[in-house]
Amino acid sequence: MEILFFLLLTFYFISSTFEYKYQSFVIFISRKLHCKVLNEIRPLLTPRYILSLQGINLILLIGLSIWAFFLFSWIFALGILLYGFIISTFLIPIIPLPTKSYCFRIILNTIEKAMYDDNNMIYIAELDELRRQILLIESLHKR
Question: What are phi and psi of 37, to 5 degrees?
Answer without folding.
Answer: -115, 115
